[in-house]
Amino acid sequence: MLEILVVRHGQSIADLEYRHEGRANFPLTDLGVNQAKAAATWIKNNFQPEIIISSTLQRAYKTAEIIGDATGAKIIKEENIMEWNNGLLAGLLRDEAEKIYPMPDGGRKPHHEFAESESYINFRARAEMFWSKFIEEYYSYDEDKRICMVSHGGMINMLFASFLNLPINNNSILVTGDTGMHLWRIKDNRKIIVFSNSLKHLK
Q1: pLDDT at 141 > cutoff 90
Q2: pTM over 0.85
Q3: Is the CB of residue 158 less than 8 Å from the CB of residue 124?
Q4: Are 196 and 7 in contact (CB under 8 A)?
Q5: CATH number corresponding to 2-16+28-84+119-202
Q6: How many whole angstroms separate alpha carbon 170 and alpha carbon 29?
Q7: Tell me, what's the pLDDT at 24?
Q8: What residue ranges do the domains of the chain occupy?
């Protein structure tokens, strides 16, 4: 059985300033650090991972470091689970971005590379590429493994869609709060959602 605990990073400066984040590399706030510490304590006590796979963007990697310090698990950097590449939107105030780069008529389509961003099709393809390699390396019928994965809200949605083989236009959103946790299992080729967006470590 393979158990995957997927964790979103803690609160970042961009969250407070209402900015487009994406590939903008903002750090955690003090609250974000404390959220990560609370998550790390819960993970140590309830889900001791063998390894931690983390996005290389600092808000995620710092969260992973805090979890790693608590659990002693090795951290592996993985660029393919970085957040959506939002191109020229990265770092802009949301109100400012709406004026400079107004949404196309009819909304953004999956193939659009709006404001020099990654298309949703390419974003999903990146998640699929990661999953294919990840499952090949870590899943086996006769061995139990526990892996913690630290990423971002948009990428977690893409990973979830890839995990369940959902179509790219599935009209669903997986909500993930700051340090929200999702536990997914693969056992005998069955895919199991144990829980989603758990925040009980913050209460």
Answers
A1: no
A2: yes
A3: yes
A4: no
A5: 3.40.50.1240
A6: 33
A7: 96
A8: 2-16+28-84+119-202
